Amino acid sequence: MAAMAAGDEHASSEILRGLARHLNCLNEDNKSTRKRALELIKRETVDKGLSSSVLQELFSALLKPLLKCLSDPMERCRETALTMTTEFIRCVPKPEESLPYLMPCLAQRLGEKETLETAEELRLLAVEMLTLTVEVCGKHLAPYLTDMINILQRTIVDPFPDVRRESCKCTINVAKSLPEHFHMQAESLMKPLMQTIAHQHSRVRVSVVEATGAVIQHSNGKNVDDVLSHLAQRLFDDSPQVRRAVTVVVGDWLLQMKDRYSYFHKLVPLLLTCISDEIPEISCLAADLWKQVGAQWEKENEDDIKDKLDFLLTQPPFYPQGVERPGLGCRELVVRHLGRLVPAISNDITDWLVPTRVRTSQLLSLLLLHAEDHSIQHLQPLLAILYRASTDAERDVVSNSLAAAKLLGTFVPPAVFLKLLLDHVTNLSSSSHPWAPLMVLAAVLGGCSKPLLKPHLQEIANKLAQPDVCQEYQQVVYLEQLLGCVDALLCQSESDCSAVSLQLLQVLVTVQSLCPEPHLSEKALESVQCLCKVQGLDSVKDLYRQHMRQLLDWLSASVNTWSSYSPQRLQLHIIVIQSGEK
Hints:
GO molecular function: dynein intermediate chain binding
Helix content: over 70%
Domain Dynein axonemal assembly factor 5 HEAT-repeat: 319-514
InterPro entries: ARM-like, ARM-type_fold, DAAF5, HEAT_DAAF5, TPR_DAAF5
Distance between the termini: 119 Å
Strand content: under 5%
Radius of gyration: 36 Å
Domain Dynein axonemal assembly factor 5 TPR repeats: 25-308
Shape: elongated
Number of helices: 30
Order of helices and strands: HHHHHHHHHHHHHHHHHHHHHHHHHHHHHH
Protein name: TOG domain-containing protein
């Protein structure tokens, strides 16, 4: 070994003697002379395939001249010096020995307020060299962390996109290599990262999201709130790669961040939103990460949920068909934070941006699927959200909100939701959208099971048949929703509707008498025919024959107050026309 070391030392000495003239030429005023000298030095060292120990000796001798060349006025000289230094760092066995000279030099070139390196391609080479240095030197860089941070603060916002990307890669390496030191200075990187997260190049945005994930993961956790709004905006990014990066980062935080329990209520909605992504790969990735999060939480809190394990593993009756029930841990996470999530949903469901409202309405359905019957304690604000969302101008927002309302009907007992909903149906004087409660009622009824709904049919039908409900408004949209409630009852209760056949017929007659649109009158007549069918009647005339006396009593009770504008006159006309001859 000693002989081999002596041989390597002799070889390096010989090479250095041969390079002495070229090293002297680096101080010449002629730029071509300096350029040629650097190229010859490169040819005799890193290009020659020398052993690592010889290269180590050469690097020790050549480092200072090479670093001096980084400030050479000629761009090609600086490029060659950077390339050689990078190759030495990659090949030598002890690259950390260069740090006392290398890091101050790079900090001066890249980390000052005014960046000295004017060529963007050379700034990229310098940052790539810095990334390599972190990879090969690891913990040896701890004394130079401040220099690293100063450099990255500048290069993350560099005008050249590739420099920004490489800086983000370097940031991730620093965070992982020096976790016990990095957390003390991580906060200083948040501002430049957030300045770059909306960069016009999608690949830069991906890099920034990934770097943000690593910085937060290895920080003291105090900056989570500073980045959440920026990450939430990236959920609407046009680039699927960016949205995928957000999915991975949020999932990683939920699984590994030290203080993750403090941020569950803020991170869970982001990951659940990713489950609704239009790209199947992202949606599946988010769903898989969510399952892992739930399973991990369940394991970590096993003692607290022992009493629930058996009970909550039994699927509720009448669970939506074709829907996979979320795991216990996932459900518990939503239930425990739903009180803090509902106000945020209420705020975002009226956002001026359409994509935000669409994603919020999708998130609402997912939350209610997880919450199951625990949504009862938040029913009042949830209904208020649904009333607003159901009147949205965007069709997707409306359909998603009605899907959420249907889940309420599945999990909340009718006695509970009817107490609120039916009151809202009749108290509409101050509402600019009086049909909204009817629309939500129809959707909720659509999710309710036949056995649970049966005891409440009389109450619902009586409410719908009240004059202040079925005769108060003549707008087409209101009558459509009134008809929708009748159809929901017919669909869900079928033959059970025989008990409320009269009230439903009264509503259908009223809709036909007030509606100026032929297509809606036709739909109402179809509902009349459906009412016949569920009762086993042969024709509409049989239905009228069954209720004629009650219908006439219904109209005659107010005959003394009729005028040419009274709806009862039109109702009588419909009854006479459709009942046929006796």
